[in-house]
C-alpha cells in the first residue's frame, strides 16, 4: 500500500546541518521509498538551501507570513523532493539556523519556526492542489507546533486531517517561549491548557507535539524508556508516561552510501571488513594530519563530537592522564563550549604528538578519523541515539560508549561471555565519570594487547547492519497506524 508523507525539519543533510537531526531528515526519505512511502521534505529557505535548490517553482503564495513576504517553492536537491519556505525576513540571515554570529538565539525564533509549522499544517490540510499527505512527520521542537495547528484546525472545522508523528531527537531542547506569544503565533485561546501547548507557564513547542501528535517516537528504544523517568524526562516524563503506547523508540540508521569505507572519496584507500589492508593508509594519514606519533604500542582513540557536558567531554579531560599512561593517543574533532574547547587546546599543547585537535567541523576529517582511529570514544551522559558510534562500527573503529540511550542499543559490550559467543562489537561503561571511563580504558588496553580478539570485535562491528532498512520498515508501519490505514 503506497503512502504519502510530509517530513518537516529545520535542517537536512547535506543542505544545512548542525547535528544528527539533519542526518536523519536527509536519509530517512530515501529509505522509506523502498517501503512504498513517497516523502516530501519541508524546510526553511536558508540561503544555503535556496542556493542548492534545482528546478525551483513557486507553488503557493503565503503572503503575509509573520509580517513579511513569503512563498512556497518546490524543487529538488541532494536527491530529495523538497518544499522550501522562502521567507527572507525569517531565514535570510547569517549564523547557523538558530542563532546569530554572536551565538545568541534569534529573538524571533518562535515566529521563525511557528511559520514552518503553520505551512506544514496548511499542506497537511490540502492547501496545495495535487498534494495531500497521509502523514505529517514533525522533527524536534522546531516543527513541534505542526501537530498542534493540525489538531486545532480539525477541531474547529470538523475536517479531515492527516495522521501526525512527532519525533524527539533530543528532549533537552524544547522550544519554550512566553505565553504572550499565543495570539501572535496564531494559536487559539483554548490551546492554552495543560492538554494543549502550555508547558511550565510558557508555550512549549516540543511539548505541544508530544501532547497532540497521534504517535510519538524517539530515536532509540532505550532513550524512549529513559525519558519516561524523572531522571531522564527533562520535566516531560509525566506527559510521556501518560501517552503510553503512543510513545515508541525506533533506532536511527546511517546512510550507508555516504558512510562506506569501500567507496569513500575522503579516504586515501578503500577497504572493507573482508579486505582490511587499505585501512592502514587511513591510520597513517590521520596520524600525519593531526601530528600524532606513529606508534602501534597503543591504540589511537578518536572523538567526533560536540564538545559539551552532555557529551561527557569534561570527563575525557579528567581521564586524559590514564589514556596517555596506556600509550594511547587522542584525535579530537569538534567544537562547543568555550571552556571545553580551551581545555582540549591546552591538552594538545601540553602533549604534542599524543593529543591532536581540530576545533570546528570538517566532513572529510570526520570520515578520516572514523577510518584512521582504532577506537572511538562516546562518553555521553545521555544520548538519544548517536550516529558517530554507528559510523565507527562500519569503519572498523571499536566504539567505547556509556551504557545510555542509543549507545546501549547499538554497541554490544565485548565482555568475556560476548567474546566467547563471538558477539561483541565494542566496549560499554556505566556512567560518564572519570573512574568509569578510566576502567573502560583499562579494558581497551587489555583488548588491544590481544590483537586476535580485537580483530574479531572489529569484524563483528563492520558486519553489523547499521543501515536505515530496518528502521524504515518500522517507520512505514507507524505511519500507517497514525494515518488509520491498518
UniProtKB/TrEMBL annotation:
<keyword id="KW-0320">Glycogen biosynthesis</keyword>
<comment type="pathway">
    <text>Glycan biosynthesis; glycogen biosynthesis.</text>
</comment>
<feature type="domain" description="Glycosyl transferase family 1">
    <location>
        <begin position="297"/>
        <end position="445"/>
    </location>
</feature>
<keyword id="KW-0328">Glycosyltransferase</keyword>
<dbReference type="InterPro" id="IPR011835">
    <property type="entry name" value="GS/SS"/>
</dbReference>
<dbReference type="InterPro" id="IPR001296">
    <property type="entry name" value="Glyco_trans_1"/>
</dbReference>
<feature type="domain" description="Starch synthase catalytic">
    <location>
        <begin position="6"/>
        <end position="241"/>
    </location>
</feature>
<feature type="binding site">
    <location>
        <position position="17"/>
    </location>
    <ligand>
        <name>ADP-alpha-D-glucose</name>
    </ligand>
</feature>
<keyword id="KW-0808">Transferase</keyword>
<protein>
    <recommendedName>
        <fullName>Glycogen synthase</fullName>
        <ecNumber>2.4.1.21</ecNumber>
    </recommendedName>
</protein>
<dbReference type="Pfam" id="PF08323">
    <property type="entry name" value="Glyco_transf_5"/>
</dbReference>
<comment type="function">
    <text>Synthesizes alpha-1,4-glucan chains using ADP-glucose.</text>
</comment>
<dbReference type="InterPro" id="IPR013534">
    <property type="entry name" value="Starch_synth_cat_dom"/>
</dbReference>
<comment type="similarity">
    <text>Belongs to the glycosyltransferase 1 family. Bacterial/plant glycogen synthase subfamily.</text>
</comment>
<dbReference type="Pfam" id="PF00534">
    <property type="entry name" value="Glycos_transf_1"/>
</dbReference>
Amino acid at each position: 500500500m503506497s503512502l504519502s508523507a510530509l517530513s518537516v525539519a529545520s535542517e537536512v543533510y547535506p543542505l544545512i546541518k548542525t547535528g544528527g537531526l539533519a542526518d536523519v531528515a536527509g536519509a530517512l526519505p530515501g529509505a522509506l521509498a523502498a517501503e512504498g512511502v513517497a516523502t516530501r521534505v519541508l524546510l526553511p529557505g536558508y540561503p544555503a538551501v535556496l542556493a542548492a535548490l534545482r528546478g525551483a517553482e513557486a507553488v503557493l503564495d503565503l503572503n503575509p507570513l509573520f509580517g513579511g513576504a513569503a512563498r512556497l517553492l518546490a524543487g529538488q536537491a541532494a536527491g530529495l523532493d523538497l518544499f522550501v519556505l522562502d521567507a527572507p525576513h525569517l531565514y535570510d540571515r547569517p549564523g547557523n539556523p538558530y542563532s546569530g554570529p554572536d551565538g545568541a538565539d534569534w529573538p524571533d525564533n518562535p515566529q521563525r519556526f511557528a511559520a514552518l509549522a503553520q505551512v506544514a499544517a496548511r499542506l497537511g490540510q490540502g492547501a496545495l492542489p495535487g498534494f495531500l499527505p497521509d502523514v505529517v512527520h514533525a522533527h524536534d521542537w522546531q516543527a513541534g507546533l505542526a501537530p498542534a495547528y493540525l489538531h486545532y484546525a480539525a477541531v474547529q472545522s470538523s475536517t479531515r486531517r492527516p495522521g501526525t508523528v512527532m519525533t524527539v531527537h533530543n528532549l533537552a531542547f524544547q522550544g519554550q517561549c512566553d505565553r504572550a506569544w499565543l495570539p501572535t503565533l496564531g494559536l487559539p485561546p483554548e490551546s492554552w491548557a495543560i492538554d494543549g501547548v502550555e508547558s511550565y507557564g510558557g508555550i512549549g513547542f516540543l511539548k505541544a507535539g508530544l501532547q497532540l501528535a497521534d504517535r510519538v517516537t524517539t530515536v532509540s528504544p532505550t532513550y524512549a524508556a529513559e525519558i519516561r523517568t524523572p531522571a531522564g524526562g527533562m520535566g516531560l516524563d509525566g506527559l510521556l508516561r501518560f501517552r503510553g503506547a503512543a510513545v515508541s523508540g525506533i533506532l536511527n540508521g546511517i546512510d550507508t552510501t555516504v558512510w562506506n569505507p569501500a567507496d569513500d572519496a575522503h579516504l586515501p584507500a578503500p577497504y572493507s571488513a573482508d579486505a582490511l589492508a587499505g585501512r592502514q593508509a587511513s591510520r597513517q594519514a590521520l596520524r600525519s594530519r593531526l601530528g600524532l606519533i606513529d606508534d602501534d604500542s597503543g591504540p589511537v582513540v578518536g572523538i567526533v563530537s560536540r564538545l559539551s557536558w552532555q557529551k561527557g567531554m569534561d570527563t575525557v579531560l579528567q581521564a586524559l592522564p590514564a589514556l596517555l599512561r596506556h600509550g594511547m593517543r587522542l584525535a579530537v574533532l569538534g567544537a562547543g563550549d568555550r571552556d571545553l574547547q580551551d581545555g582540549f587546546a591546552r591538552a594538545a599543547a601540553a602533549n604534542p604528538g599524543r593529543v591532536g585537535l581540530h576545533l570546528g567541523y570538517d566532513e572529510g576529517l570526520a570520515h578520516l578519523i572514523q577510518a584512521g582511529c582504532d577506537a572511538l570514544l562516546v562518553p555521553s551522559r545521555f544520548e538519544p541515539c548517536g550516529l558517530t558510534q554507528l559510523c565507527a562500527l562500519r569503519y572498523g573503529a571499536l566504539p567505547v560508549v556509556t551504557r545510555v540511550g542509543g549507545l546501549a542499543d547499538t554497541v554490544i559490550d565485548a565482555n568475556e561471555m560476548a567474546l566467547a559467543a563471538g558477539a561483541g562489537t565494542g566496549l560499554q561503561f556505566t556512567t560518564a565519570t572519570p573512574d568509569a571511563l578510566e576502567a573502560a580504558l583499562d579494558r581497551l588496553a587489555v583488548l588491544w594487547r590481544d590483537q586476535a580478539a580485537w580483530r574479531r570485535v572489529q569484524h563483528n562491528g563492520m558486519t553489523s547492519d547499521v543501515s536505515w532498512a530496518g528502521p524504515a520498515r518500522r517507520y512505514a508501519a507507524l505511519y500507517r497506524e497514525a494515518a488509520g490505514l491498518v
